[in-house]
Write a structure and sequence with these properties.
This protein has 385 residues and is an alpha/beta fold. Helices cover 30% and strands 24% of the residues. Strands 1, 12, 13, 14, 15, 16, 17 and 18 form an 8-stranded mixed sheet that branches. An 8-stranded parallel sheet has the order 4-3-2-11-10-8-6-5.
């Protein structure tokens, strides 16, 4: 049978026409088993060529936690990407792909001993830190490695803040840099993270000026650093347009050029911005109900098996099969018995049909990687198209 979806301008602002064409072509006259995550290979190629192109002396390391699907990793590897990892579980597939160790870094400031042993054996040499205890672990298990201190920076304006768990202020950072040097490590640079899905491009200004202050403090202590890791945070479109990569990087490059040595090495760790808007969830409508004054629609992918970020404030754009009628507000919920399994309220859409498909746009990042089989519902499969 032929699937019918009414694409509107609002949808085109979230997912590219090319991506939607590929998705709809895949679904046309094809029976699909839902839930299914479709990933547009060409969209990833486009984003890989874009991210980092506006910052001189930069190298991009894909934050593979965003989507560690083997097909995605193989594609990233074929495009020459570096990888940012946090555990032996993330190292193992890269080892299977024979990714060279100099293309892998670890920016999780707290790493397990098991991971450090595996990293040392494979030859990783670049690690973040933000505590004396981490310095001692690094000095013991990866002696002489290059380390970069995680500085705490503002995360206001980010839809997924990361500021409380990691990072230290400048006075503590300077002491840790000195301690790392005493322990035989190479304090090579500074890192920070402005927060995931950062909607305020000027967060990078504050972070970069803070990094500059620490850089100068370290120089006065006789520490010559060479790298600046600006983390990730580049946003994508979910329900509205966001500031583009070009504008963000133009601003970052200007500040780095004006405030840091000309030969500085810049690391970038994008995750969401490389795979997020390349992904479209294909789900099925499994139920509808009228509860009080609310219209409810339940689909076969939810908080526990793919849309965990919705509980942190991420809102998705939905596209309903055969959705040509008048729009009204729906509460969109997942399939489980848990009342926590709700992704959005007053989502404007045409009346969905039970058994019909519902597409969820910009679902390529932080979806299947969070998924579990809670309540027996399956983790969605991923298909690269």
């Amino acid at each position: 049978m032929t699937r019918k979806f009414k694409l509107e301008r609002a949808h085109a602002r979230i997912a590219s026409k090319a991506t939607m064409f590929k998705v709809l072509k895949y679904l046309d006259r094809r029976r699909v088993e839902t839930p299914l995550l479709l990933i547009d290979r060409d969209k990833i190629r486009e984003k890989v060529s874009l991210v980092g192109s506006g910052i001189r002396n930069s190298r991009v390391y894909y934050a593979m936690k965003a989507n560690p699907d083997r097909g995605v990793l193989k594609l990233m590897d074929s495009l020459g990407m570096g990888f940012e990892i946090a555990s032996e579980g993330e190292l193992n597939p890269l080892r299977a792909l024979k990714v060279a160790p100099d293309r892998i870094i670890s920016s999780n400031p707290v790493k397990s001993v098991k991971f450090l042993k595996a990293a040392a054996k494979y030859g990783l040499r670049s690690f973040a830190f933000d505590s004396m205890e981490e310095v001692e672990k690094l000095a013991r298990f990866v002696p002489g490695s290059n380390v970069y201190i995680r500085v705490a920076v503002a995360n206001e304006g980010s839809e997924w803040p990361l500021s409380r768990k990691f990072g230290v202020e400048l006075d503590i950072a300077l002491k840790l840099i000195d301690y790392a040097r005493e322990k035989g490590l190479n304090p090579a640079g500074i890192t920070f993270h402005v927060g995931s899905q950062c909607l305020n491009m000027y967060n990078w200004d504050t972070a970069l000026y803070k990094a500059k202050a620490l850089w100068e403090m370290a120089e006065r202590e006789g520490v010559k650093m060479s790298l600046l890791n600006i983390g990730g945070g580049y946003p994508i479109n979910y329900t509205k347009g966001v500031v583009g990569v070009e504008a963000i990087e133009r601003n970052i490059d200007r500040i780095i050029r004006d405030n840091f040595p000309s030969d500085i090495e810049v690391m970038i760790e994008p995750g969401r911005s490389l795979v997020g808007d390349a992904g479209v969830f294909v789900s099925s409508v499994i139920g509808k109900a009228r509860r009080g004054h609310e219209n409810w629609v339940q689909i076969d992918v939810g908080v526990f098996n793919g849309l965990m970020e919705s509980i942190g404030g991420i809102k998705y754009t939905y596209l309903v099969e055969n959705g040509g009628g008048k729009k009204k507000g729906f509460t969109v919920a997942g399939p489980s018995c848990d009342s926590f399994d709700v992704m959005g309220a007053e989502v404007q859409m045409p009346e969905p049909e039970v058994g019909g498909l519902m597409l969820i746009l910009s679902a390529g990042a932080y979806t299947t990687c969070y998924a579990s089989e809670f309540n027996g519902f399956p983790i969605p499969k991923t298909k690269i198209i």
